[in-house]
Amino acid sequence: MADPNKALEKLRGVCLALPHTAEVEAWGHPTFRVKNKIFATFGEDKEGEASLGFKTTIPEQKILCERDDCRVADYVGRHGWVTMRLKGRPRWKEIEAFVIESFRMIAPKRVVQELDG
Asked: pTM to 2 decimals?
């Protein structure tokens, strides 16, 4: 089981390194936003397992949800959101790529251009 506190600290580092981002608590959990639009969420399931929410494309969502650590997110899944359980030893390079992809989908174009330099 991934330690939820360590997982949150790692996720926080990934998310807040992106331009114009902020952490805002919503629904009792940390959310990460760009220009006040959510691009990633953090939570824990009933067993205390850390989880990450992020947006992706519908085709990518279908592929990811074939894995045992991913499922269609509650409420916003129809828009491409995925919930990934951060169990065991999370693959942070992969997670970082998903978070950045989600950021790119949510952020205004000029912010994405700023990220690209």
From this structure: 0.94
